[in-house]
Amino acid sequence: MTAIHLPAQLVSLPPQIEPPKIDLQNLLQQTVEIGKFCTQNAAKIDRHGVYPEREFESIATAGLLTAPLTPKLGGLGLGIEASSIVELLQILKQIGRANLAVGRIYEGHVNGLQLLQTFGTQAQIDTYARDVRDRHKMFGVWNAEDRDGVKIIPLGKGKYRLEGAKTFATGCGCVDRPFVGGMLPNGDWQLCIVSMDEVETTIDPEWWQPAGMKATASYKVDFTGVILDQSELIGQPGDYYRQPWLTAGVIRFAAVQLGGAEALFNAARQFLQSIDRTKDPYQEERFGKMAIGIESGQLWLQGAAAQLRQYHATFAGDPALTSPNAQALVAYANMVRTAIEHICMETIQLVERSVGTRGLLPPEPTERIIRDLTLYLRQPAFDASIANIGRYALQNAATDSLWTDEPANTRI
């Protein structure tokens, strides 16, 4: 393990940047162009010790880092305003289709800005919005840990000292402002933001030796000795685990994962076309199943967006208010996550059977995409998510109105 003082600008961009002038339709088109480069470069960065530097230079320049900020902060409210959830999921799926590692890191940035704008004070929001808008700083959420997890120790006079480490710190090398969760002396869980370019941390790249998602650079980071100000603690203790925000966010990584399934489908189809194996009836059956699954995943994402729009004008609601529909939103988000995981797993299995051993050897992209998607699908608490769905369904009598406020007789 080596002590690394990260440079002031992790992504190679000037320290002061003219905020990009962005609109949603232009952003969607630029995402398509960025995706083309991500696809072309995916195999090159599929190795230990690298991260998608050039990809995030393009993402920053296009305005995708700024887009999740609300319009008054210079963004588009992408994914923060419920009206733009469809476009956010479309962008996440597009990036995931191009490279799952890039999609994973970008989804973490969106998650971080959602947490900031939901639970931060106005002063904190303004400060960190300037970091994103004017300096292209990237956010992330580093919450996983082992036994040597992070503790936040009050020092008095508004100062705090961190002790311990985070694992799966996705985006080491390009994430400048990670949300880091830690335990207070009373056992409460507190979020803070660490400015990685202003502190010294001990980073262990060797901890990350995965079969897939190598380019996420999800290292172990020891924060022991980092001193924070009160202004760098975000929200109240326990806010990170508040519902429905915590679970509603799973639709974001589900969108990235579905993009990976689409990429796998396309790569397998191109491989079979290249060896003239598309007319076999068993291949046709497999691709028919995959097409149904992928379209089903798209419909699940549309359903999730509709649920969020119906729930509140902002993502998962106002934290100062309690909604009677929160449990329904949580259960629906868990359904989306579960359904898309099943779709992705079936796609992997059908592609493996379709392309055979020859199609699973590098440099065929199917080999890398399967590794990446298999690892990315291993999100925590899968069984608990399904149990939550069943518990909610059992506690509600009318099955035709579990997921909507509309009268039952108006539904198809």
UniProtKB/TrEMBL annotation:
<dbReference type="InterPro" id="IPR036250">
    <property type="entry name" value="AcylCo_DH-like_C"/>
</dbReference>
<dbReference type="GO" id="GO:0005737">
    <property type="term" value="C:cytoplasm"/>
</dbReference>
<comment type="similarity">
    <text>Belongs to the HpaH/HsaA monooxygenase family.</text>
</comment>
<dbReference type="InterPro" id="IPR013107">
    <property type="entry name" value="Acyl-CoA_DH_C"/>
</dbReference>
<dbReference type="GO" id="GO:0033539">
    <property type="term" value="P:fatty acid beta-oxidation using acyl-CoA dehydrogenase"/>
</dbReference>
<dbReference type="GO" id="GO:0050660">
    <property type="term" value="F:flavin adenine dinucleotide binding"/>
</dbReference>
<dbReference type="InterPro" id="IPR009100">
    <property type="entry name" value="AcylCoA_DH/oxidase_NM_dom_sf"/>
</dbReference>
<feature type="domain" description="Acyl-CoA dehydrogenase C-terminal">
    <location>
        <begin position="253"/>
        <end position="374"/>
    </location>
</feature>
<dbReference type="GO" id="GO:0003995">
    <property type="term" value="F:acyl-CoA dehydrogenase activity"/>
</dbReference>
<dbReference type="InterPro" id="IPR037069">
    <property type="entry name" value="AcylCoA_DH/ox_N_sf"/>
</dbReference>
<dbReference type="Pfam" id="PF02771">
    <property type="entry name" value="Acyl-CoA_dh_N"/>
</dbReference>
<protein>
    <submittedName>
        <fullName>Acyl-CoA dehydrogenase</fullName>
    </submittedName>
</protein>
<dbReference type="InterPro" id="IPR050741">
    <property type="entry name" value="Acyl-CoA_dehydrogenase"/>
</dbReference>
<dbReference type="InterPro" id="IPR013786">
    <property type="entry name" value="AcylCoA_DH/ox_N"/>
</dbReference>
<keyword id="KW-0560">Oxidoreductase</keyword>
<dbReference type="Pfam" id="PF08028">
    <property type="entry name" value="Acyl-CoA_dh_2"/>
</dbReference>
<dbReference type="InterPro" id="IPR046373">
    <property type="entry name" value="Acyl-CoA_Oxase/DH_mid-dom_sf"/>
</dbReference>
<feature type="domain" description="Acyl-CoA dehydrogenase/oxidase N-terminal">
    <location>
        <begin position="37"/>
        <end position="129"/>
    </location>
</feature>
